[in-house]
Design a protein that fits this description.
The complex is a heterodimer of chains A (about 400) and B (about 500). Chain A is an alpha/beta fold and about 400 residues long. Chain A has 13 helices and eleven strands. Chain A folds into two domains: about 110 residues, Thiolase/Chalcone synthase (Peroxisomal Thiolase, Chain A, domain 1), CATH 3.40.47; about 230 residues, 3-Layer(aba) Sandwich (Peroxisomal Thiolase, Chain A, domain 1), CATH 3.40.47. Chain A has a nine-stranded mixed beta sheet, with helices on both faces. Chain A has a two-stranded antiparallel sheet with strand order 5-6. In chain A, α1 packs across α2. Chain A is globular. Chain B has twelve helices and 24 strands. In chain B, strands 1, 2, 5, 6, 7, 8, 9, 12, 13, 14 and 15 form an eleven-stranded mixed beta sheet that branches. In chain B, strands 22-21-20-23-24 form a five-stranded antiparallel beta sheet. By secondary structure, chain B is an alpha+beta fold. The chains are: A alpha/beta (about 400), B alpha+beta (about 500).
Chain lengths: ~400, ~500
């Protein structure tokens, strides 16, 4: 038994993405309609031309009707999927599989999330009825566990690691300042990042991604048909998903300096895409910078940096927009906020723009490499799901 | 009407085989309390943490008292004036936290001050465990709030190598109004203290006569008593009775300053007084404990050679303390409503879920995989390491120490006393816990030693969520010199 690559069987032919913001004036339904309309217009299609839909949403709707209702879809198969922060990517994965297996010709993945209707601070996850025994820590607290563990394992001084965390936030906000779809469009000084109010552990407010509403959509079709819709399709080179067994907290072998799920997921994705040196082969990577230490650890788990060296590479500018491998050139979760169901497709949207030379002021110089990676992480260190895609401009 | 007297019980050859007094780590200056009503006061009182209640205080005292003798516990008797539940038994929570066998009865003794000594009497009859725990308070700035205390003590009775043997008991009962409180009301009331003082002086005389008679039947005399202690909520009565007993027996009064340095712990005060007696007793000495609550009750014990093996004395905990301010105390006691975080309130714990999960939730038991040896909490169906299913032997976390693997201070999560501190803890005998830390007094570092401790979480819909946390182990500092007449043990 083995997993097999879908490489180059499916292509993205159009995308849409709303601005990510505190859309107090727009419902989840309206955001979905906006993203879908943009994607359809880009391919010159109507909703009647789409054979099947997948909706990724974490807390903003239940069942496929959450998409069928606002779009008034008649007689279509519509499915809602959820896989924590990989929810939007999961919708894409389902749509790609449907096309790859020949069940449909054209499929759409839509991700939408409405977080700003709750009135609470931060992300509110759905509660499963339990007995209250599990520790009720917040997401920033869970990810802040990486910091003391990493410093301890690699002998990194707290101020050095702090500087690397600050650089991640500074870089992503600088990138987001150039992106009209970002929630925050302002560069932030390193001083103000380090002065931000404490949230959890070593994390301040500016080490955390924002909370926003947003939606994004992608239309996929069989690769040989893609050029009927666009001269510049993006081909799916790899789709990989690893769901953790949740044993991290219980297993003494897990030391909170890595995401083993990401390591496994990347190995599979690189095999599918034929990558051997991702740091030099990828034009860009859109990774899950939910919190600044997450991005640092991801650089190692994704094979972009040696173990124990990512903090140094970050400080050396390796992952800056003009660095060796631009990471989160669109501004990342830091600038976009994290409307959970939409984030994975928002990352693909940046690849769509960058690899096709449409990223404007923030266009990366490495676009000629022709391959881009997106990565989502849902859950907490030791207990998470990871999704990775690789997309490219050239068919095999 | 003449107060009734009880005859000495036909006690089997029994004694106290283990005991522990628990003083919560927080102290409140009485001057701060008194200042709220324009008064002055001296000293400090002992205060339970925000995540402690009478049940968790009782567990904290009982765990060290029964450690290694869990299978010898014949019964559990829980005494408090501040029960968490009415209708539902609180002793069953203690029973679960101690991971005792189902055929051990666990029962509450009502919410009166007298329940403390009664728990001792009842436990002495069947090798039982007496758990005396209380949280005392009262109207803001008043004497009850100022002079009260939160504390617990537990005593395990048995026949095997007791630290002190039970010689005899006696009781005198009387009906009069000295202290009273409506069920569930936070504040009690007291009649003019002198009225109660006179009643207790009379009762003490009768008690000494009864003890003398009871002692004679087993060949003991009041004159044999070398050390004694008196507990009661009426401070004047306690002082006067102590003076009477001293004259009658010539014995040394112990623990006279407990109410000053700790406060009066209500139903648990009798337990603190007895712990004090046992802490200072030398082998062969005869000890007398007197409780003054709606009558007078006396217990005569004789220390054995085994007293040399007793644990750390109660007073060693006096120095391990953190001073909190009066506003903090009022918030912890829910007398002031604190601002709540902009996060959803916790859900009501599911009763069926908690019942299914009781071995982990309340007894803190995990399992060791028989196939590969990996220890894991909670007990899973499938081993994370070798994936063998349903093949585990139980492993308790309670009684072990642990080391912090990594940790965080969470300023966003819901907590009755933010911030919430949580950690991954590696246990000394294998396996790890993810749990909240409590009683954190300073900076935490990876590698710090912690001990699992039973605490309360949120209360939702009247259901109190009990959970195991871990508390850092801080280095012991020397206890202050004993102010009483007795010489410290060498």
């Amino acid at each position: 038994m083995a997993q097999h690559s879908l490489s180059d069987r499916v292509a993205i032919i159009s995308m849409g993405c709303t601005r990510f913001a505190e859309h107090f004036d727009r419902s989840a339904d309206e955001l979905a309609v906006d993203a879908v309309a943009e994607a359809l217009a880009g391919a010159g299609l109507t909703q009647h031309d789409i054979d099947a839909f997948w909706l990724g949403t974490y807390i903003s709707g239940i069942s496929g009707m959450a998409l069928a209702r606002p779009l008034r879809l008649v007689g279509k198969p519509v499915t809602r999927v959820e896989n924590m922060c990989a929810t939007g990517s999961e919708a894409l994965r389902a749509a790609v599989y449907a096309v790859a297996c020949g069940a449909v010709d054209v499929a759409m993945a839509v991700g939408v999330e409405k977080l700003k209707d709750t009135g609470y601070a931060g992300l509110i996850s759905p509660k499963i009825q339990d007995d209250g025994t599990r520790v009720n820590t917040s997401a920033p607290a869970n990810f802040s566990l990486l910091v003391p563990a990493y410093q301890e394992r690699y002998g990194v001084e707290p101020q050095e690691f702090r500087a690397a965390m600050t650089h991640v936030a500074w870089k992503n906000h600088a990138n987001g300042a150039l992106n009209p779809r970002a929630q925050f469009r302002r560069a932030v000084s390193k001083e103000s990042i380090e002065r931000s109010p404490a949230v959890a552990g070593e994390l301040g407010v500016m080490d955390c991604s924002g909370v926003a509403d947003g939606a994004a959509a992608a239309i996929v079709t069989r690769a040989p048909d893609a050029r009927k819709y666009t001269g510049t399709p993006l081909y799916i080179k790899a789709l990989s998903l690893v769901t953790g067994d949740g044993s991290g907290a219980a297993d003494p072998r897990y030391d909170y300096t890595s995401f083993p799920e990401v390591v496994d997921c990347a190995r599979t994705a690189y095999e599918q895409a034929g990558l051997t040196d991702p740091r030099r082969e990828l034009a860009l990577a859109e990774v899950h910078d939910c919190f600044t230490p997450t991005e640092i650890v991801l650089m190692e788990d994704l094979g972009f940096a040696e173990r124990g060296h990512a903090w140094r590479d970050v400080l050396d500018g390796v992952f800056d927009r003009d660095g060796e491998l631009p990471v989160n050139p669109d501004g990342g979760l830091k600038s976009f906020g994290h409307p959970v169901g939409a984030s994975g497709l928002r990352m693909i949207y940046e690849c769509w723009l960058q690899l096709r030379g449409q990223a404007g002021d923030r266009q990366v110089a490495t676009a000629h490499r022709g391959l881009a990676l997106t990565q989502n992480l849902g859950g907490a260190p030791g207990d998470c799901v990871c999704f990775i895609s690789v997309v490219g401009t050239n068919p095999a | 009407m003449r107060p009734s007297t009880t005859q000495p019980g036909p006690y089997p050859p029994t004694g106290i085989v283990g005991y522990h007094a628990y003083l919560p780590g927080y102290r409140l200056q009485r001057s701060e309390i008194a200042a709220a009503v324009g008064a002055t006061a001296r000293g400090e009182r002992c205060v339970a943490g925000h995540d402690e209640d009478s049940t968790t205080l009782g567990v904290a005292a009982a765990l060290p008292a029964v450690r290694g003798r869990e299978t010898a516990v014949g019964s559990v008797w829980f005494a408090t004036t501040d029960p968490v539940y009415a209708d539902k038994t609180n002793a069953t929570t203690v029973h679960a936290a101690l991971d005792l066998q189902p055929d051990v009865i666990a029962a509450d003794l009502g919410a009166s001050l007298r329940s403390g000594i009664v728990a001792l009497f009842v436990a002495a009859r069947d090798g039982g465990l007496a758990v005396l725990a209380d949280r005392r308070g009262g109207p803001a700035g008043g004497a009850d709030e100022r002079d009260g205390a939160d504390a617990a003590a537990a005593f395990l009775f048995g026949e095997q190598d007791p630290l002190a043997r039970v010689i005899c008991t006696a009781s005198v009962t009387a009906e009069f109004i000295d202290r009273w409180r409506a069920p569930g009301a936070p504040d009690g009331a007291t009649w003019e203290e002198r009225f109660g003082e006179q009643r207790y002086i009379e009762l003490a005389d009768q008690l000494l006569a009864s003890l003398s008679k009871a002692g004679a039947e087993v060949g003991a005399e009041l004159g044999d008593v070398q050390r004694f202690a008196v507990a009661g909520a009426n401070a004047r009565a306690v002082r006067s009775v102590a003076s009477i007993v001293q004259q009658a027996t010539g014995a040394t009064l112990e623990g006279a300053d407990l109410a000053d340095v700790i406060g009066n712990a209500g139903a648990a005060q009798t337990g603190l007084a007895l712990a004090e007696l046992l802490d200072v007793a030398r082998p062969g000495e005869t000890l007398l404990l007197i409780s003054l609550a709606d009558g007078a009750d006396g217990l005569i014990l004789r220390a054995t050679e085994a007293t040399a093996g007793r644990g750390e004395p109660m007073r060693a905990q006096l120095d391990r303390r953190v001073t909190i301010g009066y506003p903090q105390y009022l918030v912890w006691r829910e007398r002031l409503a604190a601002e709540r975080p902009r996060r959803p309130d916790p859900d009501r714990p599911s009763a069926p879920f908690a019942w299914r999960n009781r071995r982990y939730k309340l007894s803190m038991a995990g399992g060791r995989c028989r196939a590969c040896g990996a220890v894991q909490f909670p007990l899973p169906r499938v081993c994370y390491q070798c994936h063998a299913a349903d093949d585990f032997e139980p492993v308790p976390a309670s009684g072990q120490t642990g080391r912090i693997v990594t940790f965080t201070v969470d300023r966003l999560a819901f907590s009755p006393s933010p911030p919430l501190v949580s950690a991954i803890v590696a246990l000394s005998r294998g396996g790890r816990l993810q749990c909240e830390l409590t009683d954190v007094r300073g900076p935490i570092r990876v590698g710090d030693e912690v001990i699992p401790t039973f605490r309360r979480g949120a209360t939702v819909g009247g259901i109190r969520n009990y959970i195991w946390k871990a508390r850092p182990v801080y280095p012991t500092t020397p206890a202050p010199a004993r102010p009483s007449g007795a010489e410290p043990e060498s």
